Amino acid sequence: MIETVGILGGGAWGTALALVAARAGRKVRLWARDHDTVAAIDESHENPRYLPGVRLDHIPATTNIGAALRADLVLLAVPAQAVRAVATIAAPYIAEGHPVVICAKGLERGSAKRMTEVMAEAAPNAIAAVLSGPSFAADVARGLPTAVTIAAAEEPLALALCHALAGPTFRPYAETDLVGVEIGGAVKNVLAIAAGVVAGRGLGASALAALVARGFAELRRLGDALGARAETLMGLSGLGDLVLTCSGTQSRNFAYGRMLGEGAPLTTPHPLVEGIETAAVTRDLARRHRISMPIVDAVVGILSGKLTVDAAAESLMSRPLKREAG
Fold it and tell me: What is the CATH number of domain 179-317?
């Protein structure tokens, strides 16, 4: 029986998930590195830096990671590139077979490993699961209707995790295809940057729709090569998340791409944009498996400064003609 939930990560997503768990009737404790964030949550019952205006009643916060990990279930809600570091710190407190749900979307820089693979190395005692799908932290925190996927290798655990977090406005669906859920969540961030570039450059709704469709074809090719199931990629954590982040103004990846499309320099300050780190990793993974991902290649070219936005668009439009299914 899951009665207590520990949240690792005091950002917008971690805070929103703490609210999800509390609304589901669980006792929650949230861990954050930042002392000011913890003090604000405990004193004013709000996270003014990441979710201003959202009440956080009955959600205590702490900088003591051991205290947060004394829970039946742990949600790891830190950026993808921080998963290994935080999991390593948490590992001594995680009992054998304890479930840890990874709520980050990305591939690790350097190793190209999925987050569950990172967890297996950094905290081998944990049973890694994944939460992903079309969801903006602000919407979830406000209690707006949201459906996500929770994946675990064993279906009974996936279902138990869904029951632990389900609420009137938060509906998780169980899945066992970890690869499909993780690849969908990671690659859609890269494609969202491309979608933002299209919007920012004023290339029109037709171009944006084409990019989403062709981008999804690239995502499916990589997923197929890695052993993902087609129905998973067509679901919430694949196509659903891609549609949201390629059209939603709350998407950091889309917003960053739009700035680039409008002519902002690569050095323009920006909040956490997972797709920046994941782009080159995805390209390298595709090359390793001999998968064609021209939109991802174009994003990498733009982010590295080797391609202008106009040159990237021209390169995609001048590719050899072929059947759509190819």
Answer: 1.10.1040.10
Token pair 């998780």 is at which residue? 172
CB 225 within 8 A of CB 291: yes
Q: Domains of the chain: which residue ranges? A: 4-176, 179-317
Ramachandran sector of residue 7 (left: φ over 0; alpha: ψ -120 to 50; beta: rest): beta
Each residue's pLDDT tens digit in the chain (326 positions)? 899 999 999 999 999 999 999 999 999 999 999 999 999 999 999 999 999 999 998 899 999 999 999 999 999 999 999 999 999 999 999 999 999 999 999 999 999 999 999 999 999 999 999 999 999 999 999 999 999 999 999 999 999 999 999 999 999 999 999 999 999 999 999 999 999 999 999 999 999 999 999 999 999 999 999 999 999 999 999 999 999 999 878 999 999 999 999 999 998 878 789 999 999 999 999 999 999 999 999 999 999 999 999 999 888 887 776 777 76
Is residue 206 left, alpha or beta, with left meaning phi > 0 and alpha meaning psi from -120 to 50?
A: alpha
CB 277 within 8 A of CB 108: no
Hey, what CATH topology would domain 4-176 get?
Rossmann fold (3.40.50)
Q: How far apart are CA 99 and CA 118, in angstroms?
A: 15
Which residues are known catalytic residues? 188
